UniProtKB/TrEMBL annotation:
Pathway: Polyol metabolism; glycerol fermentation; glycerone phosphate from glycerol (oxidative route): step 1/2
The entry's keywords: Metal-binding, NAD, Oxidoreductase
Family stated for the protein in its record: Belongs to the iron-containing alcohol dehydrogenase family.
Residues covered by the Alcohol dehydrogenase iron-type/glycerol dehydrogenase GldA domain: 8-154
Protein name, entry field: Glycerol dehydrogenase
Amino acid sequence: MLKVIQSPSKYIQGPGALFHIGQYTKTLADHVFVIADNFVMNLIGDTVSKSLEEHEITSHFELFNGECSRNEIHRLSAILLKHQCQAVIGIGGGKTLDTAKAVAYESKIPVIISPTLASTDAPTSALSVLYTELGEFDSYLLYPQNPNIVLMDTNIVAKAPVRLLVAGMGDALATYFEARASSAAHKPTMAGGATSTTGLALAKLCYDTLLAEGYKAKLAVEAGVSTPAVENIVEANTYLSGIGFESAGLAAAHAIHNGFTVLEECHHLYHGEKVAFGTLTQLILENSTSEELETVLDFCVQVGLPVTLEQLGLRDDEKLNQKIMQVAIASCAEGETIHNMPFVVTPEQVYAAILAADRMGKDWLY
């Protein structure tokens, strides 16, 4: 099996980066389709419009309705076609960006991705995660190439709610452990090849950066400022995690996240919050060392990621075990990334690991 590494053509990060979006867009198109939700449009619409105008780029702005679903992708694609735009700019959170990538792919035009959050590793990837209209995981949509440009304005990211940056750390936390498992199993990655030493090294750097900078970055964002620690965590959450998961592999943690999406009680959680608990569950499945488990637990508690089912919104009642089995069965569905583990995983094993992870989290907290 060939080794494959893929990444965006250009990654730009720093304070005030959004003021330069016109300069970078000009290399791709003269007439663009800009997608953002209502909140983000009010936040950055004028900045983006002015930057595009300064570089003689015309545009059509359209509101994103909130869910990366097939219906929303078709709706926006039809509007883009009507306005004959030459490129898509997606600005906002993960679902907005995944939708922008899907719309650009359907129209076979370039895409510029500008996250206002560092809450997931979605921005750099050549895929979108599709959901149903009710918010349940649907499927992955894979693309032949990554976004043309990813632009991160860290001034904007630093002013987003701290919970979103922490959720991004939760998503990034899985990167190394899933890459390690996928590599050991010699399973193909999302990039369509074997895990490379470069991909694994980036995934490990992602993990090391989280441990070194995560708590400091959380405190800075609580103060509404961007510091070197924030810059490093934004890069870890977005670029290192993005290249790491795509070119080094996904495994149990994200599959368990997908399993939790079947429970309505978990719909209020961010992607990375569920992934963090999925990472802890994966480590239980692997029977990782106590030292490794304690390091992960300590990090999660320090930055504010969930380590118990109660923190995920699940009450300890007579229906809990039945719900956890639902999650376990969904996690092991055909085609799920849990089958990239270096051993066969059954729903019964996942069920046991979830309950053991919950007990370990409770013990660590109390």
